[in-house]
Amino acid sequence: MKLYIYEHCPFCVKARMIFGLKNLPVELIVMQNDDEQLPNKLVGQKMAPILQKEDGSAMPESMDIVHYVDNLDHQPLLQGSTNPAIQDWLRRVNGYINKLLIPRIAEAGFAEFATPEARRYFREKKQASLGDFAELRKHAPGLIKNISDDLRQLDKLIVKPNAVNGELSEDDLHLFPLLRSLTLVSGIEWPSRVADYRDNMAKQTQINLLSSLAA
User: What SUPFAM superfamilies would the database entry show (predicted)?
Assistant: First the structure.
């Protein structure tokens, strides 16, 4: 199977996670951010991730891919219950976190920005929806304080370092990609249980954190 992704994309991380958790082989193909032709050819629109199955057919939507792969062997891993408190936490943080993350993503050395045109495409699209990056960067100190405070609240909710609720569930598929994205930001204060969970999930899923690119 082939998985078409962007390295920075949290939705792509969700799809990558299930392959890592089940130790299944998959060929990762990083699309250029300005390449509209390839995803359109595969699924009719520009999006990521896209799974190309062994029969050649293509499937979009991260959680559809997760459920498909998790059930291939009829022994699904994601059996645990979800916690509404985790979902509330994610909803709150997702309300502001892109203002902190996107300007950094636009400057980082991701493979989907291999050409100046691909990077410019991303910058222009995101600034059109989020606002001028230079303005957003002025708010970064306050946003870093906000997320550090919110991570302290999350710390109380983590049951085990290898599964946020004690048993692998969809909450892990939504939480780890956000925590991975946050490793791109210098200056965040990571409480111990959150840091242990973040690092353990990176090992379990075989997905690199972004600390080496942090700014």
Answer: GST C-terminal domain-like (SSF47616), Thioredoxin-like (SSF52833)
Measure the CA–CA gap between 64 and 51, rounded to whole angstroms. Answer: 10
| Crossing angle of the two packed helices 170-182 and 62-70, in degrees rounded to 10 | 130
pLDDT (tens digit, 9 = 90+) per residue, 37-84? 999 999 999 999 999 999 999 999 999 999 999 999 999 999 999 999
3-state SS assignment for residue 42: helix
How many CA atoms, within 13 angstroms, populate the side-chain half-sphere of residue 148? 12
Interatomic CA distance for residues 183 and 190, integer angstroms: 10
Please state whether the peptide bond connecting residue 141 to the residue before it is cis, i.e. omega within 30 degrees of 0. Answer: no
Residue 151's Cβ-count burial label (10 Å; 0-12, 13-18, 19+) is: buried
What does 109-166 look like in DSSP terms, one character per residue? --GGG-SHHHHHHHHHHHHHHH--HHHHHHTHHHHHHHHHHHHHHHHTT--BTTBTTS
Q: Which residues, 6+ apart, have CB-to-CB distance to 112 below 8 Å?
A: 6, 7, 8, 30, 31, 32, 33, 118, 122
Could you tell me the two tokens for 201?
Answer: 């999930």
SS3 103: helix
Rg over alpha carbons for the chain, rounded to the nearest Å, is 17
